[in-house]
Amino acid sequence: MEERRKRVAKERLAKERQARLIKRQNIKNNNYPSETQIPSGQEAYEPLDLRQKRLTKERKARSRKSNNNEREISDKLECIPRHDLGRIDQICVHCGAKFWMEEKDHSSNRTFPTFSICCAHGKVLLPPLTEPPSYLLNLYTSSESDAISFRKNIRRYNNVLACTSFGTNIDTFHGQGISNFRIHGQVYHRIGPLLPEEGHQPAFAQLYIYDSVHEIENRHNVMQELDEEILLNLLNMMDECNPYIQNFRHVRDLIQTNVPDEIFMVIYADRIQDLRRYNAPTASEVAAIMVGDGHELHTANRDILLKMRDGNLQRISEIHPSYDPLHYVLLFPRGDDGWHVDVPLIGSINRERVTAMQFYSYRLQIRDGDWIQNAGRLYQQYIVDQYAKIEQNRLNYLKHNQATLRTDLYNGVMDAIHANDNSNVGRRIILPSSFAGGPR
User: Where is the composition biased (Polar residues) (predicted)?
Assistant: First the structure.
């Protein structure tokens, strides 16, 4: 009996050893797709042709199941109604801005819709943007190859022609998809002296003054991928129509005539001399060039004073009317003013001036004859820049009106003072709950 049990055990071990050898040989010959798909038990001895038929049948079953799942998902998607806003055919009766019906005021009906985000029911009345020269307008609207190349590289063309620098932390986007412009942190525009320091290359507005004989070469050193013919045509156009660049050219002419005295350039911040004038500003209206020792200068606090060489960069205030046209020379080639604190609000009892939000809400609307929306990536940068300006003005208001907001009553400062604990009491700027993006 004991010998029989040993014989049976040996035969079982021999069969298992033989099964493992067959399995190993099948894996070596690539008869199984992977080890996880190796059949066990009696399936290890399944003939190759039967195994292939079985695997084919299983693949077809999985494919039918996958197709059924896709069909069910497709049927569900077809049941979801398409979101369609219709045609943008609603017109504001006050300013002519175009809207979709769904953008109407909540208090108005669909028979007589009204819109307020553009001009606050006619309280915001801004001069229309002056039409650009025909050459630039053709670059914005044409389908020719040079116009397409210009719009593709429009931010580079603007940067090489701008009079001020654009400073911020730009979030770069890698990968496919629509173009976008993202920043992080504060935005600022800066302008330097009229001439570069010794040993430094000219930049921005200095390129219009310093070594203008080799101006195209100097600009190509800044941006080498640009078309030389387009750049030359844009420069000639700016010389004819842009009042700021005409002033910089005047400084160049004075320097070339070897004027011995110091030269100053003052860019005005006052724009309230004649509010009825909607024409493009002239060179004498936006800036003044003075020759002398500077004792006769009596500039306002917001005016920009540019000296020949002082080694410093000036930061242009967000409330200066030249903040936009000095940098976005291809959006405002005729020097149209940006927002400033003296823009009047019509027919309002509570406030007399247009806010930055109202100003740019008016400017960014779509109207017949508009061309600024064709500026592509430069238009995206302009929108982001103005959003940052609006937020900065809100923060400045909160910073300078802390006493009015009575923030000391809810930030714990009074408790610390009464407890004679002044070590941790500093000058904090409290953001109220009404500020979008604040910690509350």
Answer: 27-40
Boundaries of domain holding 313: 134-339
What was the pLDDT predicted at 293?
59
Q: Would you call 356 helix, strand, or coil by DSSP?
A: helix
Ordered DSSP codes for 49-82: HHHHHHHHHHHHHHHHHHHHHHHHHHHHHHHSPP
- In a domain, residue 172? The reply is yes
User: What is the secondary structure of 282-330 as a DSSP string?
Assistant: PHHHHEEEEESSSTT----TTSEEE-S--S-PEEEPTT-TTHHHHH-TT
* Number of domains the chain is built from: 1
Domain membership flag for residue 320:
yes
Reduce the DSSP state of residue 171 to 3 states and report it. Answer: strand
3-state secondary structure 74-110: HHHHHHCCCCCCCCCCEECCCCCCEECHHHCCCCCCC
pTM of the model: 0.72
301 occurs within a structural domain: yes
Residue 129: CB atoms within 10 A of its CB come to: 17
